[in-house]
Amino acid sequence: MQLTGAQILMECLVEQRVDTVFGFPGGTILNVYDALLDYPGIRHILTAHEQGACHAADGYARSTGRVGVCFATSGPGATNLVTGIATAYMDSSPVVCITCNVDLPLLGKDSFQEVDITGVTMPITKCNYLVRDVNDLADTVREAFAIARGGRPGPVLIDIPRNVTLEKTEYEPLTRAQHGMTGKLGRLMKRSSQDFKAPEPDYRDIDILADMIRASEKPLLICGGGVVRARADWEFEEFANRIDAPVGMTVMGAGGFRGLNRLCMGLVGMHGSQASNMAVDACDLLIAVGCRFSDRVALNPAGFARNAKIVQIDIDRSEIDKNVLTAHHIIGDARRVLQLLNERMEQLDHAAWKDYVFSFKTETEYDEADDRLTPSQILDAIARIAPRDAVFATDVGQHQMWAIQHLHFEYSGQLVTSGGFGTMGFGLGAAIGAQVGNPDKVVIHITGDGSFRMNLNELATVEHYDLPIITVLFNNGALGMVRQWQTLTCNGRYSQTTLDRGPDFVKLAEAYGLAGRRVTHVDQLEVALKDAIAGGRGMVIDCAIATDEMVRPMVSGGGNITEFVVD
Amino acid sequence: MNEIKRHTLAVLVDNEAGVLSRVARLFSGKGYNIDSLAVGTTNDPAVSRITIEVLTDERQARLICMQLRKLICVHSVKRLAAERAIRRELVLIKVSAPTHEIRNEIIQIANIFRASIIDVATESLTIALIGDDSKAEAIQKLLNEFGILELVRTGMVALERGQFTIDEQTKEKGEFDYGKNVL
Mind listing the pLDDT tens digit of every residue in chain A (567 residues)? Predict the structure, then answer.
């Protein structure tokens, strides 16, 4: 049948079973929004800002494991997505961004709202496309989705000139199973060197690792973001139990391993627990699953796990030996590799090694006071009251580290956080995406006063779509994480990190049509949380905490992993 | 492992707009200077071949290869070992040649290098030379005393000796087995 470019785009989204799109309309994307009206199966969430839309698509993708989709218009609409795309790229989240550009003949002439967005996003997308011919549109969208979700996931951007959305061509519906057999995608799938197909692990490599584990007396596992992306929770836990090895988590890996498992040591790296970091230093075999040894984990790559053989399990071949030199590696999807390992491993016992590791602290204790809350009090209250399957979205800063250190996550996708890119302002957008993707779950947005003010305009979105998101605001009147660094490295010279200014977050929430509470005591917080969950309506809970509260423990960047600056 | 040396990479890519910048930015983004770059179509009109030479150590060269392979527009990547690769480039040199004697002398030098004279004017001569970098440097040294007016190099192109090609089917398996230090 003959359809316009805009209709073909919609049909292709239906092919991909897309039910939700986040976006913001504009001049060049007009035809796409017009076609959208005829597709009631696709729910559009209008955000306050394109950045919020991109974070929402990202949050949707991370919490559901499906591909998130967002729309934006040309020029400023497209560039507003950039921070969101980079966030998704650093954390390997599958997002497809669709932008429209000026008419093809106007391209390259500095036309109104024109930007070369494919050029801009080249370093932060797995792949991007400028669709010049309407006949290529359907194939391009199919390819984009396959690439976004395939192999190591990541964002993909499709830029469509306005006239292409208007032009008509023959559209032939294809089911998703047929996509890989025809057109460009079919040719791509046949090319054996493409890593976007999850490579089948080499069985010899698996056997070698199994022997290494048997020979090891002090094995250690690191649960990275790859476990979460592969949704390999069950396989990972089974593997950890079998080889009886303590598990350290990276920020991206939180949720991949059940926090209440007796083998869990908590975070590893800069804000890692004493137990994890001491174990990294002492182990004789370190197996990292889906972890790229970023500078926040392997603070000093040369001295990282200096007594151990390091084994890397990753789907992305280019991560091997990138940051830390390894002794062995397995290329493959975390789930598949762990399945194969579980088939081969017998039950092992490392009681002495565990006794050593768990003689160190796995959690931090904070001093309590009457007039304010401590981070652990707030988080403990949340853990007591929130349902066990509640989804948590965080912003970036101290509150993020506290949340990941103290909350015990139970499944992949329960935590949505910007780990690699560290995007302040990510949380609220991500919470919107997580709530839209998980309408039956309680979504809690944990934020700080610095991050929250960056994108709090999305409160309007929360109100309009009746999203019962609970924002728990760790309000210390400062850019806490930067202030912490200033305390530790700048002799307490607090340059531009004091937030001694408005707004009144309670009144602000009310202005947006949401409930707002200010709490200074655990009892008040518990009441507020219970009310929010029972009320089914968005709420901002402003929790006063001490300005000088620090994230503990902490190892400074580049240092040895056991040299704690604060513990 | 950490010794800096020249690495020659052959890359087969889609013959499409924007592909070259995708490939080039992998190098610029990491702060490597591309020593030499040559692009051209192949026997398949949909595929171009890029030959890149870069000065770096072994580990980074591997990493670049792996990252190139990840690009969707890249069909295959092969590192060409110096001892097994045939590398050639074309150099055009315009030399000042105001007198009959000087012209003769330059032509003699060109003959020794099996370079050809492709343009003669009253004041200058243009020479085309095919070879690897040592040959190009040698002739450049000799011609310098006559005054080189202009010089242009195409950048190296390279093929592997013997029956091996960049094609996936004939690629040696060995390249994927690096970094396994336990056996």
Answer: 899 999 999 999 999 999 999 999 999 999 999 999 999 999 999 999 999 999 999 999 999 999 999 999 999 999 999 999 999 999 999 999 999 999 999 999 999 999 999 999 999 999 999 999 999 999 999 999 999 998 899 999 999 999 999 999 999 998 888 887 777 777 777 665 455 667 789 899 999 999 999 999 999 999 999 999 999 999 999 999 999 999 999 999 999 999 999 999 999 999 999 999 999 999 999 999 999 999 999 999 999 999 999 999 999 988 998 999 999 999 999 999 999 999 999 999 999 999 999 999 998 888 787 778 999 999 999 999 999 999 999 999 999 999 999 999 999 999 999 999 999 999 999 999 999 999 999 999 999 999 999 999 999 999 999 999 999 999 999 999 999 999 999 999 999 999 988 899 999 999 999 999 999 999 999 999 999 999 989 999 999 999 999 999 999 888 899 999 888
Judged by a CB distance cut-off of 8 A, whether residue B165 touches chain A is no
Count the Cβ atoms, other than its own, within 10 Å of residue B31.
6
Q: Which residues contact A18 (CB under 8 A, 6 or more apart)?
A: A42, A67, A69
- Can you give the residue range of the structural domain that contains A77? 2-190
Nearest to A195 among B17, B69, B75 (CB): B69
Interchain contact, A320 vs B179, CB within 8 Å: yes
**Phi, psi angles (nearest 5°) of residue A373:** -105, 155
Beta-bridge partners for A310: A286
**Residue A17 shares a structural domain with residue A79:** yes
My answer on whether B72 and B127 are in the same domain is no
- Chain B nearest C-alpha distance from A276 (Å): 25
CB contact under 8 Å between B70 and A212, yes or no, is no
Phi and psi at B106, nearest 5°, equal -65, -40
Q: Is A318 within 8 Å of B69 when comparing Cβ atoms? A: yes
Q: How many domains does chain A have?
A: 3
Grouping H, G, I as helix, E, B as strand and the rest as coil, residue A442 is: coil
Tell me whether residues B179 and A321 touch, CB distance under 8 A.
yes
- Chain A residues whose CB is inside 8 A of the B66 CB are 317-318, 320
Q: Does B84 touch chain A (CB under 8 A)?
A: no
Question: Quick check: is A257 in a domain?
Answer: yes
The pTM assigned to this predicted structure is: 0.94
Final residue of a structural domain among B80, B98, B116: B80
Query: Tokens representing B134?
Result: 């040592």
Are residues A384 and A247 part of one domain? no
Residue range of the domain that includes B46: 5-80
